[in-house]
Amino acid sequence: MNRRRRIYEGKAKILYEGPEPGTLIQHFKDDATAFNAKKHEIVDGKGVLNNRISEFIFNNLNAIGIPTHFIRRLNMREQLIREVEIIPLEVVVRNVAAGSISKRLGLEEGTQLPRSIIEFYYKNDELDDPMVSEEHITAFGWATPQELDDIMALAIRVNDFLCGLFLGVGIRLVDFKIECGRLFEGDMMRIVVADEISPDSCRLWDTVTNDKMDKDRFRRDMGGMLEAYQEVAKRLSILNGNEERPAPSGPTLVK
Q: Domain range spanning residue 24?
């Protein structure tokens, strides 16, 4: 791993130079972060679970014609992906009131929204990823109006797929975040889904008990984060009885 050229390191992943031009290797770390890394612990095995869950979702998105950067999983922690130019936006799709929208609008958590709502946040840790409007995005050149239309269309299609996928295994998709990138192929450019889709980037509640099965267990000091991620993987049939699962050794505080 040390011989590979590191391209970028984020809070939860590292990008390395890929084996072929136009490719990268995406490595999933065990770091658990919240509030723009103001809260940070190591949770042994989290990266393995997110890699497998994200692989499963991206494979399915590719299969139904939703373009993504994903090519294939390389090992338990790494994926081969297409190199894209990341658009500096976090695209959040909300189906149920939770988190910041509940605080901003005084909505009780768990309230079904009248329809799915798409929000945009400018990716900037120093500014705590502020919420922005379509006017901001086009005015500052982060994306063109056509790209914004493409991003919103992708977000709606991903939401439709994920809602059905999770509902089928007894999980309610409350909200999720995606990132998008520009994929250049010769003279052509298209917008694709990038980054990851996992319990790190989704709010997932059990349909019967409303138990949280996502990173809110870490954000809110609820405990049982790794076990919740394992349960998501189990319900999606990603982990079977013959496969070694990450041992729930618990979080390690990073000072």
A: 6-84+223-253
- CA dist 92 to 7, 21, 63, 175, Å? 26, 31, 23, 7
**Residues 114, 116: Cα–Cα separation, whole Å:** 7
pLDDT digits (tens, 9 = 90+) for 170-192: 999 999 999 999 999 999 999 99
- Residue 211 in any domain: the answer is no
H or E stretch including 70?
A: strand 70-73
The answer to whether 37 touches 18, Cβ cutoff 8 Å, is: no
Tell me the C-alpha distance between 136 and 186, whole Å: 30
213 domain-assigned = no
- As given in the structure block, the two tokens for residue 254 are 């990073």
Residues 220, 225, 231, 236, CA torsion sign: positive
Q: Is 187 contained in some domain?
A: yes
| pTM more than 0.85 | yes
* Two tokens, residue 248: 């729930």
- Please give the tally of structural domains in the chain: 2
**Does residue 241 belong to any structural domain of this protein?**
yes
- What is the largest distance, in Å, between two alpha-carbon atoms of the chain? 53
